[in-house]
Design goal:
By secondary structure, this protein is an alpha/beta fold. Helix content is 34%, strand content 22%.
Length: 437
């Protein structure tokens, strides 16, 4: 039996897709390995959202070849989908595929093992692709499962390569979603995270809304928590919030992609909201979800971003009071309009990223301090410390409790915890009562 080792870069959608590829390899008679050096096949599921995503993906391929010269190396995902001459660029990869029709990968591996000829199979996107349904047999290695419900993006923000890497918006049909969530529940999962490339566009082609998917999942016994991946702010309407707020299982954690807190920069980015609209949305969410936490992504050094623009972005992030900020530096993506604009020097991008990160850390500490004194239900996760049990509150605050000698694992159980202290990136508390498990 051939053994396959998987490496995943990038976002939660990629993590879900790697799980699907694991399922299809297992169905084809392969086994999943956790040892790269003895694997027969090493598969790298790549990312191209930034220049750093590209470099990390290519480095992973070269390192895999060096670490295990006899393995079949498969490069798949967003990077090959967008780079036409990828075949010449990375001779270390034996098989190269994009983000489409990856069900063929197992067949390609078997063919390569037999014939030893390099294979490239990158299927281009058209204007009306259907949502690709893939095999998914969860292994229950984590307590939380990502579930892709939407793919593609039709927005074309001026800096973003993703519409080229993923095609246009399309959604997983509700009956397939229901079946998948039932399987997850039957395998012991109590928490799911609905993810997509542009999640808030879920169901548009069927005249549905994201709330339809959340309601469908909420009706499934065994699933107790539903989280949402990153959402685009302009798509969340009052009527959506009204519906979502009636779903008890939905965790009040909102990752609202901001990118910049400066109106001029947002316009140049072809984003579809102003800072005022974004701010109003967060206040509206708080009306429906008083315990909501807000997290976001912010880009620094977008072309032509001035010092004043950046200061505005910084001040806006502070005004929102994010619980967490994922900061990244702009990097030009070939074929996007922003790549042709006047670029910001590297050192300025770095300085701005450092300042935004420092703000993010300060806001995160302040957010954690505000949690002290609250009693929250915590779903405990994998035991990876002899000192603590740990899990997450509904707002995604990481909570730890001290572990007593010989105490049984709390994994996948929910307890109410009273938060007593905040530390650098988590809160410490003690169990008050059991929830329902
Ligand atoms: S909404 Fe904009 S940033 Fe997000 S994937 Fe689509 S084009 Fe990229």
């Amino acid at each position: 039996m051939y053994k396959v080792f998987f490496i995943t870069l990038g976002c939660k959608v990629n993590q879900y897709e790697t799980e699907c590829m694991k399922s299809s390899f297992v169905s084809a008679g392969f086994s999943v390995s956790d040892d790269k050096s003895s694997a027969d096949v090493i598969l790298i599921n790549s990312c191209t959202v930034t220049g750093s995503g590209d470099s990390k993906s290519l480095y992973a391929v070269r390192k895999a070849r060096k670490d295990n010269p006899r393995a079949v190396i498969v490069l798949t995902g967003c990077l090959p989908q967008t780079v036409p001459d990828i075949y010449e660029k990375i001779p270390e990869a034996d098989i190269i595929t994009g983000t489409k029709e990856r069900k063929n990968i197992t067949g390609h591996v078997l063919e390569f093992i037999e014939k030893k000829n390099r294979i490239t199979d990158i299927v281009p996107y058209g204007s009306h692709d259907d949502f690709e349904v893939t095999e998914y047999k969860p292994s229950f290695s984590h307590t939380r499962a990502f579930v892709k419900i939407q793919d593609g993006c039709s927005c074309f923000c001026s800096y973003c390569i993703i519409p080229y890497a993923r095609g246009r918006c399309r959604s997983k049909p509700l009956d397939i979603l229901k079946k998948e969530i039932n399987t997850l529940a039957a395998n012991g999962y109590r928490e799911i995270v609905l993810v997509g490339i542009n999640l808030a566009f879920y169901g548009m082609e069927y005249g549905m809304r994201l709330a339809d998917a959340v309601e469908e999942c909420s009706g499934i016994n065994g699933i107790e928590r539903i989280r949402l991946g990153s959402i685009e702010p302009e798509m969340i309407l009052d009527k959506d919030l009204e519906r979502l707020s009636r779903i008890d299982k939905l965790c009040p954690q909102f990752h609202l992609s901001l990118q910049s807190g400066c109106g001029r920069t947002l316009k140049a980015m072809n984003r579809r909201y102003t800072p005022d609209e974004y701010y109003a949305l967060t206040r509206k969410i708080l009306e429906f979800f008083p315990d909501a936490s807000f997290t976001t992504d912010i880009m620094t050094g977008f072309p032509e971003e001035t010092d004043e623009d950046f200061e505005e972005s910084l001040a806006f992030a502070e005004k929102i009071g994010f619980a967490k900020i994922h900061v990244f530096q702009y990097s030009p993506r070939n074929g996007t309009p922003a790549a042709k604009m006047k670029q910001i020097p590297k050192n300025i991008k770095e300085q701005r990223a450092d300042r935004m990160k420092a703000l993010g850390e300060r806001l995160h500490s302040q957010y954690l301090e505000r949690q002290v004194g609250k009693t929250v239900p915590v779903l405990f996760e994998r035991e990876n410390s002899p000192e603590y049990h740990q899990g997450y509150a509904p707002d995604y605050t990481l909570i730890k409790i001290l572990r007593k000698n010989s105490e049984k694992s709390l994994r996948n159980r929910i307890f109410y915890v009273t938060i007593e202290e905040s530390r650098r990136d988590y809160c410490l508390g003690s169990i008050t009562t059991m929830h329902n498990s």
